[in-house]
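Before we proceed, please read the two lines closing this message. Let me know whether the structure tokens fit the sequence:

…
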Amino acid sequence: MQYIMQVFDHYEINYTFEKEEGFQVITVPFSIPCGPALQIKFFSSEEDHDVTIAVFNVVSEIPKKMRHKALEAINKFNMEVPGFKLILDDGGDIDVQAELPWTLEESCTGDIAFEMYIRITHCLRAKYKDLIAVLYQGNKKTDSFSKINWHPVTEEGRSKESFCYISDEGLVRIDKIPPRDDQQNNGEE
């Protein structure tokens, strides 16, 4: 883990280091625009120094009736993005899992962990809206957007090519085109 911390320090990556029962854990926070604040965790056993990478709760508490859609979205994501995998856990949460190669020289773990950090954050940020879209496609609650009171997310939460909104119910909508003036707040003054 010392090699990972050295590389993260070099690139000025904000992280925390903890020792837990038989494990060392480096936690790196990041966020997804119009999505959740997440943490990448690098776990290493004190015995063998293998490194496992996880991001928990990329999407949380998916209802059982929607888990088949979650599996479809996960499979599509996993086919398009090599290097790490999304999984659906028993609680209905979508998580990320990856491992550094066992044959990796210990001195290389920092560089490879940094590369995985960049890849995971980039891919989740780029694909998150597609993942959510597949989950909620065909859902009665989200299909009738005209009946939902949408609020634009602040400028910091917007990307240049998409416009993000959140509803009173906590649903997130991402549009690729800007709203017309008469659609800005569902016609509310």
About this structure: Confidence is low (pLDDT under 50) at residues 142-146, 182-189. The chain is about 30% helix and 30% strand. The chain has two domains: 2-136, 143-183. Residues 109-136 form the longest helix (28 residues).
